[in-house]
User: Which sequence fits this backbone?
């Protein structure tokens, strides 16, 4: 005899502790199993692309801070690269190294947030691993504060370099962080990396096949967890990435555990990149000295600047009409594109897995809704 | 006029009750003296538990803070000790909502029904020598019966709230709690068999060797079962705040929420008190007749600390995994424990039909070996699921190789 069951439709979000901002999922459950999923977003839409058309090229940098607000530095970087391509200029070496250092620090901070909330969604009460992660993230934000006075909305980079050289006391502070952080990371790994409950909850759950990931143009750790070593820092190096050695961690079956694992390994690689940059960086100008205050590009020119942001490929597509502001600014945000596989990842799994999978994809609503 | 309490009365063993009864009975009718004496004892027990709850909320928040590199509450009173008061005042001043479409009667009954089992369990726990409110001869059975009432409250809360998250929480909670009843009962059966008594003071007195050593499997099963019943990680699916927000009590606010929280913390205290009584030799220790309460409190603190520690460390399991853990693992080891214990008792007890301290030590050694074997076998069986069976994940050297691979 089969018991007749009725599907239940539940709105997960927009106010929900585990939706990373104001994301909403209309989910139809059969018992606890997801049978239908409909992502609804746009709650955080601020019209960044339109706003960018109203401001001059340098002013747009502050808008990019607010896209993916847990990794503002890399947003700055992608935008500045696009503008530099448009103007056909290149920043001086010290500027490039400073950008690489800050971008990698930002990647560490962002991955720590991603991993921390992923573990929080697994149900660690009160978020013990999350607090471990935030302890280290705070140190990085303090470093950013020394660089530019802001912790989240940094606006540190400018087309043609960075806006100011690092103060003298930044380097000892960075060295202190680099000494302390491996120990803190080891503590986190000891606490959770091979925990049995974590293993049974995440291993084999919501696997993303590689061909589907490529077809949906998923990028970042989600793609690499599925088994492809695709990293723009390697494939098309920008800034100082062609001068440093690092490895690209890849997963094998793209399940929740692999996505989590890839992030944890990338943190280690970022740490090594920062160390190499510190060893290589030399005194010099940090920004092109002859750039005008108000930038203008040749009319009809277009450029696409892309980087490997912590969440995947972040691209800015700029079109110039010769004016002081971009004629069109299109943002390719990794979080939005990575959401295209939501349905494949979530349908057929349980409510508890669904939340964890969302955490492992690590979306950021500021970037999805723009 | 003087009233005599019958020697077979369940409250006869309680000296405080008898003292109040005699005192009141000298001036009042016997039935009134009986009620007054009962109320006095109840007042002390209920307020004792609630005060303990307040202290536990503070201690748990403080400890969790320390586990998480935070400071914890430290603003109000020395070391933040008055924080529970502040919490209570805050919750009392909040609006006491009943959602539209809720079943008002059932909805408002839930906090009372949640609190009740917690307080009822305390009645049979001996805090020191001869200090149980009522030393029932079927104490263990009574605890099992009363503590399973919580299921009803959770189900009522989920059903009456008219909220889908609450319904999810209730369904999960009921599923988990019902499956954990069976192994918990079976594990306590071993304890009762060794002690030869169902009365809690009887069990304490039988622990010449703490049952922590004599019945290690039973302790493990009971601790796992109670943390499932108390909705504590890794078994807190009924609340699961990252998934179903607060589960069955999502719609409760103000004083109703406070009572539900208090009953949860109170439940932790009573469950720990039961563990101390059944497995850690209760009030026994040096100078037990004078310092029994101190030993009890120390052991209680230790068990509570372990509960907080587990809560601070582990992620949450999924509902089906919890049920599988209960039915496949806990049930089998508690059956093994039951079989082993009964065979050991059959072989060891002599003609006088009682176990000596030496017998208990022999049982402790055998049962510890069996527990270790069970853990090893279970670990081996579940290795494929929880351990990394594949080689370490490959690390690509460079993007060019990846491009070629594509």
Assistant:
């Amino acid at each position: 005899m089969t018991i007749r069951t009725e599907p239940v439709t539940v709105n997960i979000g927009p106010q929900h502790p585990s939706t990373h901002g104001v994301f909403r999922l209309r989910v139809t459950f059969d018992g606890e199993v997801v049978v239908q999923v409909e992502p609804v977003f746009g709650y955080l839409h601020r019209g960044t692309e339109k706003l960018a058309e109203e401001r001059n090229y340098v002013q747009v940098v502050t808008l990019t801070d607010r896209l993916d607000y847990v990794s503002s530095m890399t947003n700055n970087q992608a935008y500045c690269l696009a503008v530099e391509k448009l103007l056909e200029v290149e920043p001086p070496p010290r500027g490039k190294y400073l950008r690489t250092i800050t971008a990698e620090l930002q990647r560490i901070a962002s991955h720590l947030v991603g991993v921390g909330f992923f573990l929080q969604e697994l149900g660690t009460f009160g978020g013990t691993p999350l607090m471990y992660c935030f302890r280290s993230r705070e140190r990085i934000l303090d470093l950013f504060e020394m660089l530019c006075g802001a912790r989240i909305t940094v606006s540190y980079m400018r087309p043609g370099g960075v806006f100011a050289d690092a103060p003298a006391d930044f380097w000892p502070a960075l060295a202190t962080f680099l000494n302390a952080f491996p120990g803190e990371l080891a503590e986190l790994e000891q606490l959770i990396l091979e925990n049995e409950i974590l293993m049974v909850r995440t291993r084999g759950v919501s696997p993303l096949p590689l061909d589907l990931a490529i077809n949906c143009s998923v990028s970042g750790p989600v793609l690499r967890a599925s088994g492809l070593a695709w990293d723009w820092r390697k494939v098309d190096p920008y800034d100082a990435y062609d001068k440093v050695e690092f490895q690209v961690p890849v997963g094998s079956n793209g399940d929740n555990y692999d996505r989590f694992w890839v992030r944890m390994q990338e943190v280690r690689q970022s740490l090594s990149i920062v160390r190499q940059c510190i060893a290589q960086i030399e005194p010099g100008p940090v920004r092109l000295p002859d750039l005008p205050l108000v930038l203008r590009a040749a009319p009809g020119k277009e450029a696409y600047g892309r980087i490997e942001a912590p969440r995947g490929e972040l691209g800015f597509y700029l079109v110039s009409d010769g004016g002081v502001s971009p004629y069109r600014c299109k943002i390719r945000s990794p979080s939005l594109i990575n959401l295209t596989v939501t349905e494949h990842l979530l349908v057929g799994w349980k409510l508890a897995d669904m939340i964890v999978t969302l955490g492992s994809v690590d979306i950021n609503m500021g970037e999805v809704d723009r | 006029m003087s009233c005599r309490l019958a020697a077979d009365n369940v409250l006869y063993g309680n000296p405080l009750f008898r003292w109040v009864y005699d005192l009141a009975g000298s001036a009042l009718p016997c039935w009134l003296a009986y009620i007054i004496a009962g109320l006095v004892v109840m007042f002390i027990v209920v307020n004792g538990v609630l005060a303990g709850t307040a202290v536990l909320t503070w201690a748990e928040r403080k400890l969790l803070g320390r586990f998480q590199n935070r400071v914890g509450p430290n603003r109000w009173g020395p070391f933040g000790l008055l924080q529970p008061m502040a919490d209570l005042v805050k919750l009392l001043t909040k609006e006491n909502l009943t959602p539209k479409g809720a079943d008002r009667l059932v909805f408002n009954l839930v906090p009372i029904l949640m609190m009740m089992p917690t307080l009822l369990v305390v009645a049979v726990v001996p805090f020191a020598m001869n200090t149980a409110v009522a030393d029932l001869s079927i104490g263990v059975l009574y605890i099992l019966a009363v503590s399973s009432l919580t299921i009803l409250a959770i189900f009522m809360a989920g059903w009456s709230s008219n909220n889908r998250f609450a319904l999810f929480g209730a369904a999960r909670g009921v599923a988990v709690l019902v499956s954990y009843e069976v192994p918990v009962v079976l594990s306590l059966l071993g304890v009762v068999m060794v002690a030869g008594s169902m009365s809690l003071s009887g069990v304490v007195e039988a622990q010449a060797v703490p049952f922590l050593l004599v019945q290690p499997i039973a302790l493990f099963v009971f601790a796992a079962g109670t943390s499932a019943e108390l909705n504590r990680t890794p078994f807190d699916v009924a609340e699961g705040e990252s998934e179903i927000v607060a589960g069955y009590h999502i719609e409760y606010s103000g004083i109703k929420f406070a009572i539900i929280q208090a009953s949860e913390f109170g439940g932790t205290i009573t469950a720990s008190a039961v563990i101390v009584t059944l497995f850690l030799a209760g009030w026994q220790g040096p100078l037990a007749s004078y310092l029994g309460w101190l030993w009890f409190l120390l052991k209680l603190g230790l068990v509570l600390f372990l509960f907080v520690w587990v809560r601070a460390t582990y992620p949450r399991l999924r509902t089906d995994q919890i049920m599988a853990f209960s039915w496949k693992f806990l049930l089998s080891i508690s059956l093994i424990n039951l079989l082993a214990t009964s065979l050991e008792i059959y072989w060891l007890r002599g003609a006088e039909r009682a176990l000596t301290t030496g017998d208990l030590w022999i049982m402790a050694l055998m049962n510890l070996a069996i527990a270790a074997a069970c853990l090893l076998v279970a670990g081996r069986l579940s290795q494929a699921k929880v351990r990394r069976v594949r080689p370490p994940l490959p690390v690509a050297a460079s993007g060019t190789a990846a491009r070629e691979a594509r």
